[in-house]
User: Which sequence fits this backbone?
């Protein structure tokens, strides 16, 4: 099953001298980012021992270079697919498959997040100019593909809500919260995220099975002493 709806999917690497030069630039950029930096195109050119003019022919801006480096670091995650029909097991497969790769290139993803936040600040201040934005939408397509079997059981609207909730657990932001704030190691962070994902799916299935309408989706807020959800017709 192909994963669709992802932003900025990487194209196949070119062959020949041009492909080798681009590979060198990307490998150098990732190496510098994995060391904790957020390198400019000029810094990558210097580290790769190529001219700045050559470097800018491949990557006209830092944003374009970091975007390409992140897509390259994600690698096989972008091609993930599953034949599993059970949505909970399917999402667990994705989290197990993807978290290891994301944490292996954690510094690279942190650098991309840092640049995205910096671009947001400059855009708000009106100083971003024509610099291309760092696009960070790959999780949307992956999560939609993972929860696809849910739609028949709970409907499109509820499935979309589950997908949006899962996006809070999948990606560098979740890794930062679990590791930096809670002090978890890589395996513990993956376990917590996967556990929470399973809990979300089970809750959605239970709500659909009980005919419940979550508060905020057309249902009145519960009064004092009432539950958080109301059964239709109650």
Assistant:
């Amino acid at each position: 099953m192909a994963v669709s709806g992802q932003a900025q999917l990487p194209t196949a690497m070119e062959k020949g001298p041009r492909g080798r030069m681009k590979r060198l630039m990307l490998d150098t950029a990732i190496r510098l980012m994995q060391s904790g930096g957020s390198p400019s195109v000029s810094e990558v050119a210097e580290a790769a021992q190529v001219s700045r003019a050559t470097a800018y022919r491949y990557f006209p801006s830092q944003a374009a270079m970091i975007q390409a480096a992140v897509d390259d670091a994600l690698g096989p995650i972008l091609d993930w697919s599953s034949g599993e029909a059970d949505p909970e097991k399917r999402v667990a497969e994705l989290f197990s498959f993807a978290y290891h790769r994301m944490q292996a290139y954690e510094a690279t993803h942190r650098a991309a997040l840092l640049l995205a936040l910096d671009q947001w600040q400059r855009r708000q201040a009106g100083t971003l100019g024509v610099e291309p934005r760092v696009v960070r939408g790959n999780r949307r397509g992956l999560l939609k593909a993972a929860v696809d079997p849910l739609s028949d059981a709970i409907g499109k609207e509820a499935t979309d809500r589950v997908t949006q909730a899962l996006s809070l657990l999948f990606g560098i932001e979740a890794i930062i919260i679990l590791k930096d704030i809670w002090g978890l190691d890589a395996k513990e962070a993956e376990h917590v995220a996967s556990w929470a994902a399973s809990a979300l799916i089970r809750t959605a299935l239970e709500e659909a099975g009980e005919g419940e309408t979550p508060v905020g989706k057309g249902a009145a807020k519960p009064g004092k002493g009432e539950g958080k959800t109301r059964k239709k017709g109650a």
In short: The domain at 15-60 is CATH 1.10.10 (Arc Repressor Mutant, subunit A). DSSP finds eleven helices and two strands in the chain.
